[in-house]
Amino acid sequence: MDTFLSILHTIGLILIIIMFFNLMIFVHELGHFLAGKWRGAYIDRFQIWFGKPIWSKTIGGVKWGIGWIPAGGFVSLPQLGDMEGIEGEAEIPKDLKPLKPLDKIIIAAAGPLFSLLLAYVFACIVWVAGKPVADIPGARVGYVLPNSPAATAGILPGDTITAIDGKPVVKWAGNMEGVTDLIALSENEKINLTIERPQADGSSTTLNIQTTYTQEETAWWQRSSLRKIGIAPVMELMVGEVTPHSPAQRAGLKKGQKITHVNGTPLLATMTLNDATKDGKEAELTVQNTDGTIFTVKVTPAIPDNWKGHADAKPLLGFNWDSPKKAVTLDYPSPQQQVNQSLAWMGVSLSAILAPNSSVGVEHLSGPIGIGSSMYSILELPADRAWRILLWFAVIINVNLAVLNFLPLPVVDGGHVVLGFAEMIKGKPVEGKFLNWLMTGFIFLILFMFIFVTFKDIGDHVGNDEESSLPPPVFSPPAQP
What we know:
Blueprint: H1 2-38, E1 45-59, E2 62-76, H2 84-87, H3 101-129, E3 131-133, E4 141-144, H4 149-153, E5 160-164, E6 167-168, H5 179-184, E7 191-198, E8 204-211, E9 231-233, E10 238-242, H6 247-250, E11 258-262, E12 265-266, H7 270-277, E13 283-288, E14 294-299, E15 319-322, E16 329-331, H8 335-354, H9 368-379, H10 383-406, H11 413-426, H12 433-459
Antiparallel strand pairs: 1-2, 3-16, 4-9, 5-6, 5-7, 7-8, 10-15, 11-12, 11-13, 13-14
Helix pairs in contact: 1-3, 1-9, 3-8, 3-10, 3-11, 8-10
């Protein structure tokens, strides 16, 4: 029964995502459709998704349909230009007259305009309902990976990063302004960090540190990894569930306690404890009870009884970590602030893709599957947060859709606008073999990019979820005397 409900839950979320996609596509194409009707253009088809229609119906002389390739949509307007390579063959009346250049410009620009208007509609809802804020506050280093670029450069746990390559930071991740974001987007051979290092007397010293970076190896079907320097943030940690008869339980660890020090070193991240106890090493833990009292205990990790003989078995202390539940706050950015932020993020992304020394490339863009996967993750959040974040995410998508379609490139709406202005200046339509070759070339380029990005979207979900073959750990009770 649980499996059946889980399947229904998954199908339901996928249907919601498809509805969202189709709504955004429909509104964009509705702009072209209404503008076409207004300017007296001949409209052959209005289709959601590409390819041969799996459903179609003629209403008012227009064929309405749904294609079998779930990507985008179109309104077939033969007077705008030959788009047969993407939209298929259109039924064109023999007495069809050409459109005026101004009509072409208005019809082409209407799609991006309607996408932008939809972004403002979603943004108004977010403005009233609020956007959940879940950024990791602060930029204090909790852990430095041994032998990493950060360790080689001299960064220490407890340091607070205040700027990266001259750009100020106040949080660890988020909005392309955090520590991990600015490191990933760096375009320099060496990354410049400004840090505040605490001193024994309570003061701090400002240091400027240069560090190299690493990029993890990925499979050929996956996106290349972005830049990292080997640091992790300070974590708020508590002892979670404790396995019965484990070394942790025998040492007196209980759920809700805090481990403040390991071998006298402040515990700022879980990895510090992992390093101290790897290979079965004994560690001295300073533990704080829920009532504030503190005690010290020595504990030695052990291999669970039911893991002995397994090649992947490693010694465990026998407890899970838990984090204090934080109250989710709501931010109420104005519609214009949301649109401006979306435009800024898009500018940063495009700048990073075009920069010659950046590690960010076209492969890091997301197609329908990647965007849908992000939306699915959002919908998996608690309901009171999910719908708010989804609406905010829709603002970003529609702003991106509007801008990308308005770029002055062949095939997309911006290209038709440019051709319309060129026709106004020239006094006749821009035609010729070169234009046809250019349009055909961009059709193939767009199809190639769509396939390439979709391939990477799928590849990122293949081979990443390696589940342990080990069963849940079990420790035997101590022998009775």
